[in-house]
Amino acid sequence: MSQSKILTTASGAPVADNQNSRSAGPRGPLLLDDFHLIEKLAHFNRENIPERRVHAKGSGAYGTFTVTRDITEYSSAKLFSAVGKQTETFLRFSTVGGERGSADTERDPRGFALKFYTEEGNWDIVGNNTPVFFIRDPMKFPDFIHTQKRLPQSNLKSAQMMWDFWSHSPESLHQVTILFSDRGIPDGYRHMHGFGSHTYSLINAKGERHWVKWHYKTAQGIKNLAPADAARIAGTDPDYAQRDLFDAIERGDYPKWRVCMQIMSEDQANRHHENPFDVTKTWSQKEFPLIEVGMLELNRNPLNYFAEVEQATFGPSNMVPGVGLSPDRMLQGRVFAYADAHRYRVGTNHQQLPVNAPRSPVHSYQRDGSMAFGSNGGAAPNYEPNSYADAPKQAPQYREPALALHGDADRFDHRVDADYYSQAGALFRLMSAEQQALLIDNIAGAMMGVSADVVERQLQHFYHADEAYGNGIAKALGIQLG
Q1: What residues make up the catalytic site (predicted)?
Q2: Residue pLDDT, tens place only, 23-44
Q3: DSSP annotation of 8
Q4: Using one digit for the tens of pLDDT, what is the confidence trace for 351-368?
Q5: Residues 101 and 90: beta-carbon distance below 8 Å
Q6: What are 195's strand-pairing partners?
Q7: Phi, psi at residue 301, to the nearest 5°?
Q8: Any known ligand binding at 338?
Q9: Quick one: pLDDT at residue 8?
Q10: Do 299 and 249 contact (CB within 8 A), yes or no?
Q11: What is the DSSP string of 210-254?
Q12: Is residue 197 within 8 Å of 130, Cβ to Cβ?
């Protein structure tokens, strides 16, 4: 029989009694010098870190990305250097608007955040299961998220504030159409596509830049839940998507996605009839066809949800040589917002946690801060430039090519193209009659109780996208469009 382990405090001191607090006599008050009691209570009070402001409830798993096509003509990133090359990944799925205890089957976009542990550092792509987003400018992000959360007075969700915001933000119509379609409630995380959503960039060894859209096509096939089934599951198994993903991996049924990209040259972007950096619009796949570049497989569950999923941090600021950003306004706002959220929520040194730590060596001049691990730099200098030959030095060979900018610095109105409707209308017309009817029914149900002025304003957006779209919702609401 093996010898049992000795219980210790977090500092490693043996615990003699884990059942009784120290007190002044058998009936007296407790004593402040009971450091074991104080440590247990203090740690318990801090076991929950602040939940994410958005994407609070999520599921994650480790996997691999395997290159299936040579794309070195577009990117010098080493993870793409050879067909067959594998890179370890971590993928976190999530709902967007709900809290950590919310149901997995709510009508909501799903986050699709992917971390590549490359030999040159970590590369993160933050996206969703939709190719577009509700807004174009990060100035409006806090306002939008407020409408998806709860009213300050009642702490209740409000259809009024959601539709009020959307009705004043016509650029949201494309995403709203997707959200209330049959794809608005995926059947778990395995049966949905993922998208980088934003426009990113790739840079090759010659210093040539191409703009890129990332697509992850589920190999399991698209499956969605009917609203009635989603409501039933929310009441009987609110962790439905988490359970489905975990169990599938445990039984060896590893989910896979084909990793594809759309490519646009800088010259093509300059001549494109639409703004290629507008996240409320997609690129035509006829004009910019999908190119399959690899296969993503999830094949290992985390050992500890809190350590590896709740504390996982993703941000578009995590890049490696050969990949880059774009002038996409929302992406540029997220470069700051995501990393700053992690510094607040997890800690200054969140990158040092195992799930976030790169697999490649780290040589930086960052020191101290909460949760600084290891030697904290030891005797090495914490400043640069310095006189030490073995200290980290900048590497100019990794500079990105210059991006030509022009125009006056100003607050330019992003609502100037007046085309909020063509892609939403085209999506509506692509749907079958059954899908259109479900979309109309979903939207009409979600608008019940919303004030007449907001309904009228929003109906005009639907009508401009497609007359049958607007008239169908108006009829379902018992309204005659004038």
Answers
A1: 55, 128
A2: 888 888 888 888 788 777 777 7
A3: B
A4: 999 999 999 888 888 888
A5: no
A6: 128, 215
A7: -80, 150
A8: yes
A9: 80
A10: yes
A11: EEEEEEEEETT---B--HHHHHHHHHH-TTHHHHHHHHHHHTT--
A12: yes
State the DSSP string of 399-417: PPPP----S--S---S--S
Task: Count CA atoms closer than 13 A to 115's CA, side-chain side.
Answer: 25
Round the average pLDDT of the chain to a whole number and report it: 93
Q: Is 146 a catalytic residue?
A: no
Phi-psi region of 271 (alpha: psi -120 to 50; beta: other; left: phi over 0): alpha
**pLDDT by residue (tens digit) across 121-168?**
999 999 999 999 999 999 999 999 999 999 999 999 999 999 999 999
The whole model's pTM is what?
A: 0.93
List the catalytic residue out of 20, 43, 48, 55.
55
**pLDDT reported for residue 2:** 60
Which residue out of 128, 204, 275, 356 is catalytically annotated? Answer: 128
Can 20 be counted among the known catalytic residues?
no
Cβ neighbours for 476, distance < 8 A, ≥ 6 positions apart: 440, 441, 443, 444
Q: For residue 425, what is the enclosing H or E element?
A: helix 422-430
Q: What's the chain's length in residues?
A: 482
- pLDDT of amino acid 482: 66
Domains and CATH numbers, the chain: 1-47 (4.10.91.20), 58-129+186-357 (2.40.180.10), 159-185+421-482 (1.20.1370.60)
Helix or strand or coil: residue 47? Answer: coil
The pLDDT value given to residue 49: 85
Gyration radius of the chain's alpha carbons: 25
Token pair listed for 106? 């709510």
Q: Which residues contact 311 (CB under 8 A, 6 or more apart)?
A: 49, 346, 350, 353, 355, 356
Q: Where are the alpha helices (DSSP H) in 346-389?
A: none
Question: In the predicted model, what is the mean pLDDT of residues 58-74?
Answer: 98
Q: Are 52 and 259 in contact (CB under 8 A)?
A: no
Mean pLDDT of 12-19: 81
Amino acid at 310: E
Question: Which of 255, 114, 123, 143 minimizes the C-alpha distance to 188?
Answer: 255
Structure tokens at 224: 């969605």
Structure tokens at 330: 């929302």
Contact 16, 37 (CB under 8 A): no
